[in-house]
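tokens incoming
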């Protein structure tokens, strides 16, 4: 619990709960080690030393707390990565971002396969049903795949006021695995994988 990561233009790690910080994305002379501009970070399940990092210019992987980095962008166009999702157990890695939609890592860091086109701001696997994956696009455009990204269906909530943000918050309910939360001018919850939505906050 004492290890904390913080990202903005650069990435930092604290080993003492935020008392002191070590830069991870720059070298001893201040030179960039990875692309700057941090937008997403996802820990490998069960590990604190290994994680994927989405930046303004692609995706990177480390297994040693950010001491060394693997560049996973050889087969990718330069793109902002807004979200990284890991299938429970680490058997599937997916990312979502600007213009690239949802992409899936194939092989040992070798290539990427596009699963959904467009602009993606949020992406996650269902913790209750891991073969189900969700993606949030612009405002109320939400999608669900029941087959690990092979096919997709729209699960847009019917909201009376458009979302305030370009990428509206869309995430799994942390207290109820399998439930979904979405926010526009209100907070909405779905208990049936997005088939129906109910407002759970005042407008």
């Amino acid at each position: 619990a004492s290890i904390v990561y913080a990202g903005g233009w650069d990435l930092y790690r604290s080993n003492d709960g935020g008392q002191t910080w070590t830069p991870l994305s720059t070298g001893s002379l201040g030179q960039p080690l990875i692309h700057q501009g941090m937008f997403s970070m996802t820990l490998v399940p069960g590990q604190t030393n290994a994680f994927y990092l989405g930046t303004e210019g692609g995706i990177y992987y480390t297994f040693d707390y950010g001491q060394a980095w693997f560049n996973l962008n050889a087969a990718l166009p330069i793109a902002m990565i807004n979200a990284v999702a890991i299938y429970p157990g680490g058997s599937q890695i997916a990312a979502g971002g600007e213009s690239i939609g949802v992409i899936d890592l194939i092989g040992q860091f070798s290539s990427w396969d596009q699963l959904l086109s467009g602009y993606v701001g949020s992406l996650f696997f269902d913790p209750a049903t891991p073969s189900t994956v969700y993606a949030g696009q612009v405002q109320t455009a939400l999608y669900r795949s029941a087959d690990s990204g092979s096919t997709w269906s729209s699960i847009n909530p019917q909201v009376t006021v458009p979302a305030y943000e370009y990428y509206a918050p869309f995430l799994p309910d942390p207290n109820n695995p399998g439930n979904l939360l979405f926010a526009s001018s209100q907070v909405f919850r779905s208990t049936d994988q997005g088939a129906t939505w109910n407002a759970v906050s005042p407008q």
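note: The mean pLDDT is 89.
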